[in-house]
Design a protein that fits this description.
The protein starts with a helix and ends in a 10-residue tail after the last helix. Helix 2 packs across helix 4, helix 6 runs antiparallel to helix 7 and helix 9 crosses helix 12. A hairpin with a 2-residue loop joins strand 1 and strand 2. The strands form 2 sheets. It has a 7-stranded mixed β-sheet with strand order 1-2-3-4-5-6-7. The chain has a 5-stranded mixed β-sheet with strand order 8-9-10-11-12, covered by helices on one side. It has a domain of 62 residues. It contains 12 helices and 12 strands. The structure holds zinc ion (ZN). Zinc ion (ZN) binds next to helix 3 and strand 12. Keywords: Signal. InterPro entries: Metallo-B-lactamas, NDM-1-like, RibonucZ/Hydroxyglut_hydro. Belongs to the metallo-beta-lactamase superfamily. Class-B beta-lactamase family.
């Protein structure tokens, strides 16, 4: 479990070593590194999704190095952000996108969960708006300040931690080079890995000066940020993608920002809580949102995709439970599970996305469902 999560985070935090092509993203500018990157759909864009509400999302919704979506909500006395992006560089670009739609200061950033692609943009945001509260669930605060994120410097950049992080990027670089050296890749896979090399090069730039910002305000169940027009109800609906998930409900707009309970087109199943996940999504559905703002991917105007994810969670659990009961080993269960019909429902026959559906959903979620069926605890991994 832990190895898999670490592997995901290395990839989701990685880029390629090519010093000759490095270029600085100056604080306060949105300028990307030069090169063919914009066509890869990596850089987030901002879209108005309701009056006074915006979604900052990557135009190409799947990358093996993803950046979490950011929701921007304008209240009378300032802006509330849901999540912060995945690196200091992404955070700088988010600051510029936010400034492009409102002159108000950011007064609070609520973090949906502890994974790096949602929190590591905080430095740029709190440097620009130092009075902003950083709000998390108590459980997520424990991850951010404790063992789960022990690899990251706290409160300020640190050259030793940065060097260790860069080494992990070198590992991801080697993985991509080795993979691209294989002759039997499908064309879509080759294009996907080549794009990933470009993105990881950008990511190395973006992650310079990396550090974690500590939460300033915590809650266990719910916290309301009141406002005459756009109140925000922060809420822990139960465990799902992590044990401390936070979602944001905007009752006046009937909008639900879900964090990674909902990720499109390929859901992420690392160290998840299978039984609780479907229940948590149903608790969100019970509010009857008309606008769903996922942790990755575009805004959704109905709950068709939510239903599909609930069905996937239940299908995976139902496939694993009887095999675990027969006392098969995890290896045997992995070999027997076939989610290819579900995979087609999510990603069609695209070989690139199929590969990552297997890696980011099937493998980790089968592992989690196996642990659950055997009564073993699900541990949150190391970042
Ligand atoms: Zn994410």
């Amino acid at each position: 479990m832990r190895t898999k999560l670490a592997w995901f985070l290395v990839l989701s935090l990685a880029c390629v070593t090519t010093p000759a092509q490095t270029a600085t993203v100056a604080p306060g500018t949105a300028a990307p590194v030069s090169g063919p990157l914009p066509r890869d759909g990596y850089f987030q864009q901002i879209h108005r999704v309701a009056d006074g509400v915006w979604l900052i999302a990557q135009p190409q919704p799947f990358h093996i190095q993803p950046i979490g979506n950011v929701v921007v909500i304008e209240q009378r006395d300032g802006l509330v952000l849901i999540d912060a992006g995945g690196s200091p560089g992404a955070g700088r670009r988010i600051v510029e996108l936010v400034r492009g739609v409102s002159d108000k200061p950011v007064k609070a950033v609520a973090i949906t969960h502890w994974h790096g692609d949602h929190v590591l943009g905080l430095p740029a945001i709190v440097e620009r708006w130092p009075k902003a509260d950083v709000i998390t669930t108590t459980t997520t605060a424990g991850h951010l300040t404790g063992r789960s994120m022990k690899a990251y410097p706290k409160g300020a950049p640190d050259s030793t931690a940065q060097a260790a992080f860069d080494e992990r990027l070198d590992g991801a670089d080697a993985f991509l080079r080795d993979t691209l050296a294989k002759p039997d890749l499908a064309r879509a896979e080759r294009e996907g890995f080549e794009a990933s090399q470009r993105l990881f090069r950008q990511y190395r730039e973006d992650t310079r000066g990396l550090y974690l910002v500590a939460p300033t305000r915590m809650f266990d169940t719910a916290l309301r940020l009141d406002d005459p027009q756009r109140p925000v109800e922060l809420w822990h609906p139960g465990r799902a993608n992590t044990d401390g998930d936070l979602v944001a409900w905007l009752p006046a707009q009937r909008a639900m920002a879900t964090g990674d309970l909902l990720v499109a087109p390929v859901p992420f199943g690392f160290n998840a809580y299978p039984r609780d996940w479907a229940d948590s999504l149903r608790a969100l559905q019970a509010k009857r949102p008309t606008l769903w703002l996922p942790g990755h991917g575009a805004a959704m105007h109905d709950d068709a995709y939510v239903q599909r994810v609930i069905a996937l969670v239940e299908q995976t659990r139902a496939a694993v439970a009887p095999l675990a009961k027969e006392r098969l080993t995890l290896e045997q269960v992995r070999a027997k599970i076939d989610l290819s019909d579900a995979r087609v429902r999510f990603v069609g026959d695209d070989p690139w996305l199929s590969r990552w559906f297997d890696r980011y959903w099937t493998q980790p979620f089968v592992d989690a469902a196996y642990r659950e069926a055997n009564g073993q605890p699900i541990e949150q991994g190391e970042g």
